[in-house]
């Protein structure tokens, strides 16, 4: 694996290249995650594809600036990474936040995306008619981001917490945490890498977005992967049906028993659906 640090207008974005075979495929992680979430499925793609993953700003080993978390900025970070790596056209596979970034990228730079895979993201608006949330924006964010950041005495204590609470704990989740470096706090304790305030900025930017408008400009094939057990499946299927007519080609698959981060509990099925689509 090769590692790169790309300067995106003063913010350092960490990129990882796992292979150089065939067409590029870029993996974009969910909010609070990092490129490490894909470790369980990346080996299935390295023989046929040039596999790239990045840590989105505010995540993993990329910089964590106090501001600059609009979706357009995250998209430009991706463009900067692709330009530095000499990649013009790529497949994009996203999970949750990664889907929003990937879909907006495909909307802004339609000629640079070969295909788009949206796993539990960019499948429904957050607010408005048919949206995920019915409470006001203020109520939603007070409920979701009001708790203080969790603190742990050590990295080992944080890992033990994850083993008890990130269930079902398995080898795919363990892969994510094997070299996890918690963020050090001023009081000597540690916490999770991504700052709550930075993630709130991303969530606030997403809240009133009209995602269906992005698909007006998407020209590539799209695979939609809503999770069966995440909730609001009917809302997501209705949204997908509404945007399918805008696309040249699309496919929707609901993996049985799947939940939000399906690379951990349904890695085999996820790989099969993505590779079949590609």
UniProtKB/TrEMBL annotation:
Recorded coiled-coil stretches: none
InterPro entries (alphabetical): AB_hydrolase_1 (IPR000073), AB_hydrolase_fold (IPR029058), AB_hydrolase_sf (IPR050266)
Gene Ontology terms for molecular function: hydrolase activity
UniProt key word Transport: no
Ranges for domain AB hydrolase-1: 24-121
Key word Hydrolase present: yes
Domain of life of the organism encoding this protein: Bacteria
Swiss-Prot/TrEMBL keywords: Hydrolase
Name under which the protein is recorded: Alpha/beta hydrolase
Organism: Bacillus bruguierae
């Amino acid at each position: 694996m090769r590692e790169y640090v790309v300067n995106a207008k003063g913010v350092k974005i960490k990129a990882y290249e796992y292979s150089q075979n065939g067409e590029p495929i870029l993996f974009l992680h969910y909010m609070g995650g990092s490129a490490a979430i894909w470790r369980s499925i990346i080996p299935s793609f390295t023989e046929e594809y040039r596999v790239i993953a990045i840590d989105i700003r505010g995540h993993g080993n990329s910089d964590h600036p106090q501001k600059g978390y609009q979706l357009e900025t995250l998209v430009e970070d991706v463009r900067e990474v692709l330009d530095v790596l000499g990649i013009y056209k790529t497949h994009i596979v996203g999970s949750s936040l990664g889907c929003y970034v990937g879909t907006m990228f495909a909307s802004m730079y339609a000629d640079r995306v070969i295909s788009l895979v949206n796993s539990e993201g960019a499948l429904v608006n957050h607010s408005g008619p048919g949206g995920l949330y019915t409470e006001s924006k203020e109520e939603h964010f007070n409920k979701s981001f009001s708790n203080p950041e969790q603190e742990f005495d050590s990295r080992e204590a944080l890992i033990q917490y994850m083993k008890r609470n990130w269930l079902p704990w398995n080898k795919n989740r363990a892969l994510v945490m094997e070299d996890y470096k918690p963020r050090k706090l001023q009081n000597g304790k540690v916490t999770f890498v991504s700052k709550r305030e930075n993630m709130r900025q991303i969530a606030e930017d997403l809240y009133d977005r009209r995602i269906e408008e992005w698909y007006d400009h998407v020209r590539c094939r799209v695979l939609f992967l809503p999770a069966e057990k995440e909730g609001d499946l009917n809302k997501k299927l209705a949204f997908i049906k509404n945007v399918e007519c805008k696309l040249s080609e699309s496919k929707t698959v609901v993996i049985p028993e799947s939940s939000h981060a399906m690379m951990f509990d349904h890695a085999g099925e996820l790989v099969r659906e993505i590779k079949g689509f590609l």
